[in-house]
Queue: 4 jobs
Job 1
Amino acid sequence: MTVPIIVLEVFDYRSSVPAPTQQFARKLHYAGSLAPEKAPFLQSWSPALNLTVYGNPNQTLRNQQAFAIHPPVHGDILPGIMQDGFGLVWDGDIQPADNEFGRYTRMNNPHKFSLYMAAGLPVIVWSEMAIATVVQRHQLGYVINSLTDLPALLNTVTAASYRKLQANAQAMSMRVRNGFYTQRALLTMMILLEERA
């Protein structure tokens, strides 16, 4: 590239529905494409892990008894529906490096992350995701290497540790709901253009 690059860091997520005050629960939410090639990990999900998926599943997933399925809802109101636990930011397989969609998350910024932040919901992400650095820097949740790490992780989460993550996610919620990252990028662009003029 021969021109300056502005890193957005996080997509903003405007919503007219107030962000709920998240409650401590060892529960997971997954919103996004439920296509088998995008989320193959759902095919072998353990019923011991409390998961709700949001979207329109195929027949195979509809027959799956390992998790709850919430009917599709408009993205504007979805942040108000998830009221406890963690948002799962995951694409690909149990080990994302085994799937092209998982590997892609090493360089993309997943929109579902912004959805969970708009809801003030702490997250769990793959350690090699590009967004993992944001999660760690702002202490917004947990970073794991594989979905096989989930049971042990969830067993160690306490109400006190959850409240700290939730407070940080609530602060991030205010930023993404108010367009902070877009405004910052535009302001940075204006400064760069002014300097080049």
Job 2
Amino acid sequence: MNEQEVPRLDLLRFLERVQERDLARTRDWITAEEQRVAELAARQPPPPPPDWVLETGIGAGRRPVAVHQGFCRPQSARVRAIPADEARRLIAEDTGLACQLCRPDTELGLL
């Protein structure tokens, strides 16, 4: 090893220590930001459920399967909010679409 290689190696090790400190500081900032975002999300109330939802089937046609009141909303990607007039129309066309648990047909005044 000659004399010029030792200072270069020392410089590289110094650079490594500086970068490790910078990385640790950046990770601390990320952790603090994640906590801030989580606290902000916890403070905001969840949006209210829609009044009426339509559950659709699987497949290309995605035919209506059931109409529910918003509180009875099934956990599915095949559910979307609908207005009351559409819920009434769907149930009037096919009474079998009314959910048997939440009874949207009764709430909409169709029975």
Job 3
Amino acid sequence: MSVIISIKDIEFKAGSKVFIRCDFNTPMDEFGNITDDRRIRSAIPTIKYVLDQGCSIILASHLGRPKNGFEDKFSLLPVAKRLSRLLDREIIFASDVIGNDAKTKVANLKHGEVMMLENLRFEKGETKDDENLASELAKFSDYYVNDAFGVCHRAHASVHAITKLYDNEHKAAGFLLIKEIEFAQNLIKRPARPFVAVTGGSKVSGKLQALTNLLPRVDKLIIGGGMAFTFLKAMGENIGNSLLEEELLEEAANILKKGRELGVKIYLPVDVVAAQTFSADSAIKYVSTQEIPNGWMGLDIGPASVRLFREVLSDAQTIWWNGPMGVFEMDKFSKGSIKMSHAIAESFATTVVGGGDTADVVERAGDADEITFISTGGGASLELIEGKELPGVKVLLKEEE
């Protein structure tokens, strides 16, 4: 049986250098200010543990999706400053990834010091799983630790190719990565029942495999957000100009049919907040899902849907939520998602929230402290639920003796 190599399995030699791949892909406003530092705070236990072993640390992460090398708005410098405050220690910052500045600062790194490389994606080889980039990064350290769950579903140089350059005694998963995997596995294998899955977001296509994999495991399934309209259309409803993936109508109908066969109750919105355009000054109306006028589109679930979904959640013992209920980025279409967050936070269930937009909703609603576990990775979380093997995790497995 394969088990993941834990950071606690490694015997770090004092004075060694440790490369920690983190996920510092934090949201920022237009002025470059960090609006949510949850991912930075989540890496602190692993960083402190390695420092306690008497090692020095090279931190690495990506931020956003830069196109051609350095872009000021994607610099990790604000992250280094925030981490410095959180740890109350200096973070040495390299202005490049494998250039002269990084090499010089790694060479001069003293016992117990922490440094951070510039955004890994400023190097094109990162997203191409380039072995040359991986080789250059591996030269920086004696040990490798991956604590970046949010990118483990990607075969990138800093999470995949680099691991081939360390043996099992010198590479491991950090505390956050292990926690994420254990939560996802327990959720699928041993949920307390009733188990309710809440899915939302814009598209069915991104969640199709997860829905298919979840159906035999859950007792109830709530479908909201833009993806709900493909299901409503498959049931014969008139959805006006609402978001529709026409090529997935048959798949949506099959999921509804399979749910009936398995005895899984599937709940869709019964009313929506509709508008003719997605804008702050557009007129809105509350209409049932059977009465969306032509030329109008549903942009959030309505108050009756909120009451229905709250009732569905009332006896849940386990709740997994991935995807907002509407276009929550605009205040007038955010109420459904915010109220869903309150309902989940107030429940007595074990509550697990998939990362990305859903985590942002929970933060915005002020419910983060009431949620059992908020995943730092939306895509990676979904792929675990889908039953897929994550490339960044597979390379950290060993056979149990």
Job 4
Amino acid sequence: MTIAPSARGQGLSRRLLDACEAAAREAGAHRLYLETSSTLGPALALYDSFGFVRLPPRDTPYVRADVFMEKALGFSSP
């Protein structure tokens, strides 16, 4: 995920993550998972603030991915 430099600072990344989480919940997903790079400091800060937690390293087909994170999506009973 990236935001064009000219559009940064407007909360679009957070809105995209909110939309992803809403779609995942609607689909019945129990977690969000992402792989990213340790060189992307602002993105990591966003994911941390959004409630993602770091996972141990794992095999990945993505050469630049060296950070693995997930966010559990707890569901409340009706």
